Amino acid sequence: MRALRILLIIAVILGALFTAVDRVAVHLAEGEAADRLRASEGLASTPDVDINGFPFLTQVLGGSLDEVQVGISDYEAGAGEDGKTIRIADLRADLKGVEFSGDFGSAVADSATGTATIAYDELLRTAKAEPTQVAPGITAEVVALSDGGNGKIKVALETTVLGTKLPEPVPVLGSVTVVDGNTVRVRADALPVLGGVEIAESKVRQITDFEQRIDGLPGGISLEKVQAAEDGVEVTVTGKGVRLAG
Hints:
The protein has 2 domains: 2-117 and 239-245, no CATH class; 123-213. Helices cover 24% and strands 48% of the residues. The chain is built from 4 helices and 13 strands. The model has no long low-confidence stretch (mean pLDDT 82). This is Secreted protein. Pfam families: LmeA (PF11209).
């Protein structure tokens, strides 16, 4: 009986030691993976990397991690031509089946899903934010974007008629969608009347409708869907064979 108690005590101690070593190992691995990701993506700050699943050491021996969560606070993505960029806030990705090399010099996830936010002021930079003539004596420009409710985006048009600016911007509700996995498109649901004048649809849509291409997201993930929310456009991202490093 005494021997059995001693064996149980030893088993508990060894289990505690293994758990402690396992947690230290995963912490070190998360730091190394974060540094590798920062370097490979050219990030301004070190991302958050959480390796889930226990025990970690047995996953390492198998060369594959069940689940890795990555968080990047601010990511400068490409915005089409001319080297322009657009800031993606709070990019969070949940990666499944991550195959990696021993030094984390390369890591590829079987699949990835995640979310991100594009602030309205960032998206506004791509709209027709300059006075544009839509009819003789009438100009309009986009001055603000905001949440229109029910997943819609509200476009505020400042209108000038014969040199006189209307007292309040004209609100226009629009739908926001993803095109080709890399472009956010905003399109007015219904055309506004500006200055009491019916204006050709093509002229109005030059102002109300616009697109923003987003290139070079980490690991080759792409846009899946978008919708307007309180703080900006919420984006769902997805990917297969997502390369984190190497």
